[in-house]
UniProtKB/TrEMBL annotation:
One of its GO terms (cellular component) is plasma membrane. This is Succinate dehydrogenase hydrophobic membrane anchor subunit. The keyword Transmembrane applies. The chain crosses the membrane at residues 7-26, 46-66, 78-100. It is a multi-pass membrane protein. Its cofactor is heme. GO terms for biological process: cytochrome complex assembly; tricarboxylic acid cycle.
Length: 102
C-alpha cells in the first residue's frame, strides 16, 4: 500500500508541477489579478488540495521508510516520526488555510 501511495502521490505532484510551469510560461506578464483568478477557481482549489494531500502522503511514506531503515532505537524513531507527523500536519493546516481562506 505504501508503494502505491508513493507512486500515486508522485503522479499528482508531478502533474501539478507541470501545470504550474506551463501556466507560468504561458503567462508572460502575470498579474496579481490573474494569479488570484487562477487560485479563486473551484477546480483549481480542489487540484491544489489534492496536491497538498499528495505532498503530505509522499513526505510521510518517504520519511517513515527512511526512519524505519536508519533509526534503530524505538524511542528515537518514535520521536523522529512524531516530529515528522506534527510538521506534516502543520503543512496541511497552513496549506488548507491558504487555499480556502479559512
Amino acid at each position: 500500500m505504501d508503494w502505491l501511495a508513493q507512486r500515486v502521490s508522485a503522479v499528482i505532484l508531478g502533474s501539478y508541477a507541470v501545470f504550474m510551469v506551463v501556466y507560468l510560461l504561458a503567462s508572460s506578464d502575470l498579474t496579481f489579478e490573474q494569479w488570484q483568478g487562477l487560485f479563486g477557481q473551484f477546480w483549481f482549489k480542489i487540484y491544489t488540495l489534492a496536491a497538498l494531500v499528495a505532498l503530505v502522503a509522499h513526505i510521510w511514506v518517504g520519511m517513515w521508510t527512511v526512519a524505519t531503515d536508519y533509526v534503530k532505537n524505538a524511542w528515537s524513531r518514535f520521536i523522529v516520526l512524531g516530529v515528522i507527523a506534527l510538521t506534516n500536519f502543520s503543512y496541511f493546516i497552513i496549506g488548507f488555510s491558504a487555499v480556502w481562506g479559512v
